[in-house]
Amino acid sequence: NPRESIAYSQYPRPADAPQWNSDKPSLKDIKVMGYSIRTIDYRYTVWVGFNPHEFLANFSDVHAGELYFVHSDPLQDHNVYNDTQGGDLPHSLTP
Amino acid sequence: QDALNVLLIIVDDLRPSLGCYGDKLIRSPNIDQLASRSLLFQNAFAQQAVCAPSRVSFLTGRRPDTTRLYDFNSYWRVHAGNFSTIPQYFKENGYVTMSVGKVFHPGISSNHSDDSPYSWSVPPYHPSSEQYENTKTCKGPDGELHANLLCPVDVAEVPEGTLPDKQSTEEAIRLLEKMKSSASPFFLAVGYHKPHIPFRYPKEFQKLYPLENITLAPDPQVPAGLPPVAYNPWMDIRQREDVQALNLSVPYGPIPVDFQRKIRQSYFASVSYLDTQVGQLLSALETLQLANSTIVAFTSDHGWALGEHGEWAKYSNFDVTTRVPLMFYVPGRTAPLPEAGDKLFPYINPFDSVSALMEPGREAVDLVELVSLFPTLAGLAGLHVPPRCPIPSFHVQLCREGQSLLKHFRFQDSEEDLALHG
């Protein structure tokens, strides 16, 4: 069932705001990791605190989030993550 | 039954801007022709949208959190674990494995050796003209030579009178000729450099994309709700002389719209140039009577933003940077073997306006991942599919974190595929 297929991606960042090394941070400078879950219906991303020495992502330390629904927003221009905060995001969407 | 050969074509920074992915603007007849003989995955995604981490991930079959390569500065065998690679696995199964062009990312992440000797039976080939890629070989409006982002060239005038991907195609064909008489099966990986920046391509390809036909991205503004951490400030293209001259503000620009259209024009022209290289390679494979015994896999390491969300380059989690072309031609399975005298991969000139619209091949819409390349190629070649990795798997040399895609090669209309099912 295509609905069951999932693709995971990730991207590192050195800080919450864009800076000179945001595109290609060295390992030691990575402070945030963006983890994405994609399905046929949506892309859900959380940008979480990351410890480059322990290689540990802290999913309790969420810096930002993105949620786009493919059908209504195929180009991913309308982030509805914040609209869904406050607990009513389906539990199945959280990593 | 003789083992099937494998030709793995990896294209640097190629997003699915191709005719076979529905892009009506792009002239990519040779890749479209390959797609019409293949199983094409409509929704394939890279695990990280930047060269070395993506390549090490799919060539080892492990996710970046296992290779622990998020930048360019470590070699997984030293830094994370002694993980086997796809070519290494084929080599250990009796294949002659060869690398042409950019397969592993050069430098530390592949031990300054393209992971030789583990992965390759012979020293990897790198085109000599690659050394000029980022030098001042682009003729500017002032008639001087610059190191520009936009770099349509007269090939006769550039150093060595050739370009890296042309040399790679020649070398790959030379290796195919050598392997034709070999008793061993081969695994040949060909890594093309374009459309990676700089957009340095034979200038005649610009004619395929008159500037008046080039639109902006459908959503060229930075979205209001985009968290700043998610935005990629495209610092690499800003280093190029022609972009520097625009005096753009950091981090959001924007780039003047006429220059945005020129970037898009040159990316598309680079794609059509790349298509001719793939066309020559596949035509030679058939001329050497190897097309009936060779699996062809075609993909890229990640996509590229062409102005969407006010972004350029890769370096993000957006679909435009993570989604990649992925297709597999399997002789006699994704397409019937050709009748005597028929051809599967005749070269098609993208300048021929009459090149017929290509019949689409088989397609799969399920979301799949590049990390599935390892188990899928192993399975298609009839090798044992490596076991799934335990978590964690740093101590495990051979395993895979991606699903095998073999289930997608079972086509309703052909009972012989049940064999694959078995």
Briefly summarize what is shown.
The complex is a heterodimer of chains A (95) and B (422). Chain A has no helices and 4 strands.
The best one-word shape of chain B is globular
Q: Could you tell me the mean pLDDT of chain A?
A: 90
Largest interface, counted by CB within 8 Å of the partner chain's CB: A-B, 48 and 49 residues
Indicate the radius of gyration of chain B in whole angstroms: 21 Å
Query: What proportion of the residues of chain B is helical, as a percent range?
Result: 25-40%
CA distance, first residue to last residue of chain B: 17 Å
Q: Write down the secondary-structure element order of chain B.
A: EHEHHHHEEEEHEEHHHEEEHEEHH
Strand order of the largest sheet of chain B: 3-7-1-9-12-2-13
Task: Give the strand tally of chain A.
Answer: 4
Helix content of chain A: under 10%
Sum up the structure in keywords.
heterodimer, A: 95 residues, mainly beta, 4-stranded antiparallel sheet, 0% helix, 40% strand, globular, B: 422 residues, alpha/beta, 7-stranded mixed sheet, 12 helices, disordered C terminus
